[in-house]
Each structure stands twice: as structure tokens, then as C-alpha cells.
Amino acid sequence: MIELEGVPELIDPVMVAAFEGWNDAGDAASTAVAHLDREWKGEVFAALDAEDYYDFQVNRPTVWMDDGVRKITWPTTRLSVVRVGGEKPRDLVLVRGIEPSMRWRSFCNELLGFAHELGVELVVILGALLGDTPHTRPVPISGTTSDTDLARRMDLEETKYEGPTGIVGVLQEACTHAGVPAVSLWAAVPHYVSQPPNPKATLALLNRLEDLIDVRIPLGELPEDARAWQVGVDQLAAEDSEVAEYVQTLEEARDTAELPEASGEAIAREFERYLRRRDGGGPSAGDRTRPPMPPKPGGRDERDEKDGDEESSED
User: 3-state class of 252 per DSSP?
Assistant: First the structure.
């Protein structure tokens, strides 16, 4: 670890992490953390030594000019901290980097060492995957954890995934073994429009994160960017009859699956978010977990909707 500044003293810190690469379809997850860092003017205080974890033939450094002097930026993972104000201020430790090429266990242990030193109370790892989901519908977000108590308390799924995994899955399991509460939030990105950026998926991740850790996140231009992105994809789909027909098939499958919850938890969640933004803050509940939701009317929760490749969200 290369320490760039002294370790700050934090208030109720939560670590939020995302990594470019295999777990970041459409760059949705890494862009979400970059948005938090930009909106709250994060201050970088540490970076991992790139020599320890990256193959520079896979992730090459870049050369740039600074007042006529050539400099090199090495691919790595950096940690920054932001202070979220309000009635109950708290700090977010933002981890933003690239999925390492090697020594994943050491990589996770280094991050967990900092989490321990900073007194991190919860680790939230953001990811994005390709799925059979139409771009015209809300982005499905899956929240998973390996902790039974945490799943019950924060209304999450217990992960049941088996198969190949990325750094998101490895880091979450490392947190579990270290006794650090950890959650993964996954956005499903339409596989037929997977190229970055995907502001709609980024926005959905931030909305779910906002609910999870009970903070109000400034969204800036993201809502407008998400609308513009959808209009652009609509136009592209309309120009290809086969794509348009395929999107309609996905829409029908999605609408049929989600019909039972039309008056249930999804609407309640959106209404709570509206109230928080109107009032300029979060709920007044004593703890920072989500407030209790009304019983579901027998339908499945949106996080249970897994179409096609969406079943590959491991954590």
C-alpha cells in the first residue's frame, strides 16, 4: 500500500467499492463510484502499489504531459474519503480501481486492513452484469450477502451462486471470513446494448445504494443522461426490425413476471425515495438500515427477478 496522506478519522464509515473489468458491464459500477467521488469531492488518501497486482501488458500505463513534463499514470486501485452531511453525518470510503491481474487474496487483505484501521462498519461492492432485460424497463438491481442476519435485517438475498467469479465475489467472501459485514449490489445491463456508458444502470445502482445506507446522493445530470441514453437506444432499436421485435419479447416477459408486485413493495420503495428527496434528507429512524416495508402482496420482489444471464450475479 502506498499511503498518500495520513489516515483520516471517520464518522460511521461505509466502504463502497467498484472495479473496472469483468464485473462492470457498461462501466455502470465504476461510474457510480466515480460519480460519488466527483459530487462529494473525494480526497484520495491511499493507493495500492500497482507493481503488486497488475499485469501492465493487460492494463497498460498511460503517458501524459504536465506543463511540458512527461508523466506516467499507472493502473491501480485508489481509496478516497467523502463526508456526507445532514442531521447524521457519515463518511464513505470509496474504493475505485481495476480488477487485479494477480494475487487476489493479498489484494483483498490489503483493502480489509484499511477497512479495519478506518473502523468501516459495512462494505458495499457494486457490480454490473449482462442480462436478458429490456432497456425500456427499470434496471433490475440484485442485493446479495453471505450473512444470514444481514440479509434479514437489510432485506437482501443470501447468495446461492456457484460458478466462475470475479474480484467482487472474492472480496465479499474475504469480508465474510474477516467478520466484516458486506453486501453486493448488481445491476443487470441489456446484453444487446452493453457498450459503455450506461447512465441508466449507474443511476439505478446509486438509487439502491441510497436506500441501503440511508444517505441522500446528489444525482447531478445522471437522470437526464439516463433519459437521453434510453431515447438513443430507442431510436437505434427502431431502425432494426429484428432488434425491435426482440426488445418487445423481453418487455412482455418482464411485464408478465412483475405484474403481481404492481401495488406492492416496488411502489412503496419509490414513494419513500420521493419523500426523502422532497424533505431534503433521510428517514428519522434511529438506525441506518432501511425502514420496514409493508408485506408483499404475494408477488416476487424485483430482486428475485432474474432473467437469463442475470442468474450469474454471484454476490
Answer: helix
Q: Return d(Cα 309, Cα 315) in angstroms, integer.
A: 14
Are 175 and 123 in contact by the 8 Å Cβ rule? The answer is yes
Rounded to whole angstroms, the Cα distance separating 247 from 256 reads 14
Cα atoms in the 13 Å half-sphere on the side-chain side of 182: 24
Q: Is the C-alpha dihedral spanning 262, 151, 173, 217 positive or negative?
A: positive
By CB atoms closer than 10 A (0-12, 13-18, 19+), residue 259 is exposed
Cα–Cα distance, 285 to 116 (Å, whole number): 27
Q: What is the pLDDT of residues 294-315, one digit of tens each?
A: 333 333 343 344 344 444 455 5
Contacts of residues 147-154 at CB distance under 8 Å and 24 or more positions apart, as own/partner, are 147/176, 147/181, 147/182, 150/181, 150/183, 153/289, 154/183, 154/212, 154/289, 154/290
Q: Which three cell numbers stand for residue 42?
A: 473525494
Q: Where residue 275 falls among pLDDT bands split at 50, 70, 90?
A: low
Q: Which of 39, 18, 230 is nearest to 124 (CA)?
A: 18
The answer to whether 315 and 172 are in contact (CB under 8 A) is: yes
Rounded to two decimals, the pTM is: 0.80
Name the residue with cell 498518500: 4
Q: Give the pLDDT mean for 196-225.
A: 95
Could you read off the pLDDT of 136-176 as tens digits, one per residue? 999 999 999 988 888 988 889 888 888 999 999 999 999 99
- The contacts of residue 14 (CB under 8 Å, 6+ apart) are 90, 91, 92, 93, 120, 121, 122, 123, 124, 213
Residue 297 has what pLDDT? 37
197 preceded by a cis bond (ω within 30 of 0): yes
Q: State residue 51 phi and psi, 5-degree precision.
A: -60, -25
Range list of β-strands (E), the chain? 2-3, 14-20, 43-47, 62-66, 69-73, 78-84, 90-98, 122-131, 141-145, 157-158, 182-190
Question: Distance between CA 16 and CA 13 in Å, rounded?
Answer: 10
